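Ticket #4471: structure export looks truncated?
Reporter: QA, pipeline team
Priority: medium

Steps to reproduce: submit the single chain below to the structure queue and open the exported record.
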Amino acid sequence: MARGLNRRQIGVTEEMMATFGEIVLRMSHNHQIREGDPYREKDWEEIERHREPMGLSDAQIAERVGLSRNQVLYIRTLMERRRFRTGHYVRLLDLGGGKRFRTERFTPHLDHFRYSEDALELRAAMNYPPDQARDYVEKGWWRNETQRRYLERNAAERPDAPAYVLPGRTLTWKEVRDTAERVAGGLWQLGLRPGDVVAVQLPNIPEFAIANLAVTWFGGVVQTIHMPYRDAELQTLVNHGRSRAIVCMGVGKDWSAAQAALDLQPQLPTLRHVIAVGDAPDGALSLDDLIAADPDIEIGHEPSAADPHLLLYTSGTTSSPKGVPLNSHNMLSNARMSAPEKGLTADDRILTAAPFTHLYGLYAFHLGLVTGMANLLLPAFTPPALAESIEKMRPTAVWFAPAHGAAMTAAGLIGKHDFSSMKMCLFAGSAAPPAMLHALQEAWPGCRVCQLWGMTELQAGMFTRPGDGIGKSAVFAGRASPGSTVRVADPETGAERPRGEEGEIQIRGPMVFPGYLRNKKANETAFTADRFFRSGDLGYMDEDGFVAITGRIKDIINRGGVKFNPQDIENLLSAHPAVQMAAVAPVPHDVLGEQACAWIQLNPGAEAPDLETLCAFLMEHRIARNKLPEKLVVVDEFPMTPTRKIIKGRLPAPAE
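Actual output as written to the record:
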């Protein structure tokens, strides 16, 4: 019993020591600078002001920093031992029961769970520079906020308010909280523990919310998998994430994710459980059975904000997907600080056309948690389904990708449906043609059309605010989100570019991820020396700090040694009356090295223009002749990511 708890039982890594050690030591150390006698005078404001310099308790530090009390105790003890050469024992003595020992509350130390090696490796990936972590904590950007805490707050303060809404089906915050706790208990009975990864492949339905909140209830990590992915992607992502369970759809019409996961289990050494929503194939568990689990199962662990709680993968439009570990410090602080700047409160109703398996959709999910507002659910996007959902469900805020707006416009739905409930809408995921945003703002006069720039690695990095006006919002992706710093730099030298000049967009802030999981090569080039994340996006910043996205570094076309960005060509082609969407990318050329090829998807019923006609259209808009596309491909439908971004690597090759 006297052996206490060791590092594997507490979940402390050397990387965590490096990030939080100095912060914990400084907050715990008594600096003896007490002034006056506020305690005798009962001057509560002065007492609070003196609290930190006088030294905080481990519990107070845990609440401030976003760690568990035991983690703070361990880190403090080890830091004092290293700094002051004290003889403190590095194991923690945990007798249970608080002030008095109680046999029924005591768990023998050998019976405490231990974080798995995979869980510790994932925790070690959450490695932030100590000076940045200290800055974020001191400014209140990072605090001990978790999905479970927000869920319990909403259930206590707004028990009967809607949390997740489908036509004909509404779950209140109390129902979600109670159901998530039961499912968490069922997962705990299956042997899942803090730090274990659980893959979730579900559409935007209430079961996604239940699974997500249940896994993170006890400190598990949610790994999202997009709905279009099949066996090959499933095997790759579950293997890399080392997932111990997957929650997915059961028996389907043309494909069963649950059956595919069962069939792949021999090639997935960490996958122990397949949990199906709907009809479960033989060998799979049913989510309904977990929902019916014993509500009194005791889970002896509550997560903290520093714990990893998401494992996402980049969309892989130009390369293989990369694993992105994220915690509540990143995601929930970003949502909490962004909500008031968007004017969002508990009285709003948000609908996202983007899937919850993508960070853009999760941004709406997180905003719902931190504000207490309802998420209106669209399980699968089609232009009519989105337009009808807005008309019938009456959201006040809607998340679009530019392709969603283009598809609804091409289908003639903008003038046919009632969009008057929207007070603000957001466009993100790819570059939005300014002409389309101006047209939508004119069609929706009571709604403020805004843009957002984000990535899997950082959620919402920049956005325009509702008060910025369409003049800014149609052209610019936004200005820095709260707490972040954005700059535009030379991609090769790293020197900051003057206002108005194009360069790489780089960002630093409390929402930025710490680095890719098990990908040393990618991490070597992901950050600058002063820890700005290199986005790979090109843009320029105006005098007011607004940033316009002009393309991707990898999309630059090098025609005979002359380099140019094709995004302005894409925007103009998308404005052609016959064209719904367009993409321009380089193709090999024997003499020039590269030349531009245009791919277009036509509006319904439109006749395909030839290359000469399109080039004449571009010349009318004073495009330089060397930028004109020299190849043209008409496609029936573009290959798209789950957030409706064109995957240029999968475009068909032009004819010779």
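Status: closed, not a bug. The export was complete when the record was re-opened. Leaving a note from the reviewer for reference: The chain has a mean pLDDT of 89.
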